[in-house]
Amino acid sequence: MKLVSYQRKVEITSVGNQLEWRAGLYVGKGIIDIAHAVKGAPSTMQGVLDEWDKWYPCLLEQQRVEYGGFIPMEEVQLGAPIPRPPSFRDFYAFEQHVKTCRQRRDLEMVPEWYQLPVFYFSNPAAFVGTEASITIPKQTMSLDYELEIACVISKKGIDIPIEKADEYIAGFMILNDWSARDIQREEVKVGLGPAKAKDFATSTGPCLVTVDELQGRLIPSLKGNRYDLQMTASINGKKYSQGNFVDIYYTFAQMIVRASEACFLYPGDVIGSGTVGSGCLLELGGGEQYNWVQPGDVVELEIDHLGTLRNTIIEK
Fold first, then answer.
1. Which whole-number Å values give the CA distances from 42 to 18, 24, 50, 64, 154, in the listed order?
2. Core-most of 63, 73, 164, 183, by most CB within 10 Å?
3. What is the pLDDT of residues 235-267, one digit of tens each?
4. Residue 191: count of CB within 10 angstroms of its CB
């Protein structure tokens, strides 16, 4: 099942982009408005997630029903599937990415990285969807993309055990953790991690793909589920990055366990994987072997079964 947040283009034209992002069910030909199709259902994705156990079975049934009231794709604009999540934690879970980026700075791996998954909080108010324009911060000359996958939490929980953690995942979506590398280099010297280097934009989408859609690619383990999903990134049609979700060192179950220690997770919370191996220009030699992302560039992230997340870069 593929869930989206959308607005109708004709309404955006008439009143501006101040409309509610409505919850929709993607059915190939178009979008079914969930609140219109399912009696009593919420009109937003956050509302659906707040009562996930109630609405998820209804939506599974709805996608099997022939419904004539869909909205054609050419008439809608997709937003971030969760337009403004309650919180956003981004982890650092792919070993190849961590190793390569540290090697480029002549640094060894930190032994503590292998002891527990780590994350930083980023800005949930900066989420945008596919086809949205990304404005380069005027303070940076080193804009980079980051190819990631994210999960969305489906129910409230604290101190979640590893054997239950995957049950808290509503689904997965593509995530691009845009980064201003020159700003980041200065910030991390202080020791608190990136902040302004990351808070200007995070794009996700094009849809939230529920776990049931991915069963054919499932690789279970005692430490949580992995999925065999190819991940690629391109700029202006040229492929730069290629990896696979299955190569993740820490599973999302392990990340959920860590994030929920002495802390509640809530429906709609977003957890990012961190960058897949080769999944950014910094890792590939950005600034030396490749130019950083420039105004006019079109960046496309693609993950098997999750779709393509496309954004165009603009100047302020």
1. 19, 10, 9, 20, 15
2. 183
3. 999 999 999 999 999 999 999 999 999 999 999
4. 6
